């Protein structure tokens, strides 16, 4: 699919970690003034997806600005403690259907509205 993975973090230790995990390009936000511009210089029309692992507003804002048309932002780095407290107070729960890994292809090929809530794969 000719996609490249861009890691964005700060410092040489994080660069080494990201490169060891297989990123194609590392952008150090401590050295680069305009991270969004640096990412857009690597693409023709924005990125297909952004996974935000940082719990900062600017990371989400920049991540959204990097997306191309139809791109997806995946929020991973939320304020976990606050989110859990909110969920506890509001009695929020998620509907999840779990499937064995052997059914992964069938799960991915099925229509999204087939499942109540979210589909998840067990890694056991």
From TrEMBL:
GO molecular function (one): alcohol dehydrogenase (NAD+) activity
GO cellular component terms, semicolon-separated: cytoplasm
Pfam families membership: ADH_zinc_N (PF00107)
InterPro entries (alphabetical): ADH-like_C, NAD(P)-bd_dom_sf
Cofactor entry: Zn(2+)
Keywords assigned: Metal-binding, NAD, Oxidoreductase, Zinc
Annotated signal sequence range: none
Domain of life: Eukaryota
Alcohol dehydrogenase-like C-terminal domain location: 2-96
The protein's name: Alcohol dehydrogenase-like C-terminal domain-containing protein
Species of the source: Penicillium daleae
Organism lineage string: Eukaryota, Fungi, Dikarya, Ascomycota, Pezizomycotina
